[in-house]
Every structure is written in C-alpha cells, then in structure tokens.
C-alpha cells in the first residue's frame, strides 16, 4: 500500500516537472527537502503527531520550505498533511528521485568492500560499469569487513560477488556437495 501511494504521488510530481521542463530544478529541491526531513527525525515525529493540529503542521512546513521550493512541491507537502499521509513523505521523495534517475538513464551501483575504496578505485569501477552497461552510473560505496576482501557490486537486481566471503561460501557448498556423492 505504501509503495502504491508513494508511486502515485511521485509520478504526479514527476509529470508536472516533465511537463514544465523543470526536471533538474525539481530534482534539486526534492533532494534538499529529503535531506532536511531525513536528518531531522524530531521534525518528522512532530508532523506525524496526532495531537498537533493540521494547520500548525502546514504552517511549520511553509515557514521552513516555502521560500526554498516551488509551489508544486510545497503543494505536495501540504497535501500530504491534509490527507494525513505525512508518514509517506520521505518515500514519495525517494520514489520521485528514482523516477528522475530512470528518466535520465542513470543506474545506481552499490559497491561493498572490506575497506574504504580510494577515489581512483571508484573511478576505475565506474568506468568498467559504464562500458559494460552503456549507462550513466552513480556509485554508492559501503564498507563491510565481513566480506574479508574483494568486492560485491549490485546494479538493480543483479549482483556480482567477487568477495572472499562469497568465494569461501561457494567453496563450502562445493565441498558439501562432494560429501553427499
């Protein structure tokens, strides 16, 4: 249900941005609003609190965002409060940003390594992914010491596991299969 709600509102905002040729502007504003709301957990609790009046919530949103975002985005935020769907705001904003990435042909690749990667290593991985996928790549890095070494790369629903942990797991499975024969 939450995904359906987020998709509908995000798609409506995306359609408005596309129709008005303001994709980049909306993307920047949505990203800014998302960062603020995601980092201010207490503010989100206030927006979701049932004993705070709707008008007060709207007034707070307008004081914070009205001078920083378009009327369309402000209208969406106000509508979320009016419809009592404020708990979906972050998901709607995330879904909108995903719509923009799809529109621009940008794919997010998550690279997991045992130690932090250098900028040079990230650039090499990015170039290899660009050449193999023929798409723009946005890299997100994560550090997970449990993989011991190597990399895990996730692009969409595809995963390349070149980690030592993955190889050990594969070897363990092969040895287990040998014992059964």
UniProtKB/TrEMBL annotation:
The gene is atpH. It comes from the Bacteria. The keyword Transcription regulation does not apply. InterPro entries: ATP_synth_OSCP/delta_N_sf (IPR026015), ATPase_OSCP/d_CS (IPR020781), ATPase_OSCP/dsu (IPR000711). The keyword RNA-binding does not apply. Keywords: ATP synthesis, Cell membrane, CF(1), Hydrogen ion transport, Ion transport, Membrane, Transport. It is found in: Cell membrane; Membrane. It is a peripheral membrane protein. It comes from Defluviitalea raffinosedens. Belongs to the ATPase delta chain family. This is ATP synthase subunit delta. Gene3D superfamilies: N-terminal domain of the delta subunit of the F1F0-ATP synthase (1.10.520.20). GO terms for molecular function: proton-transporting ATP synthase activity, rotational mechanism. Its main location: membrane. PANTHER family: ATP SYNTHASE DELTA CHAIN. This protein is part of the stalk that links CF(0) to CF(1). It either transmits conformational changes from CF(0) to CF(1) or is implicated in proton conduction. PROSITE patterns: ATPASE_DELTA.
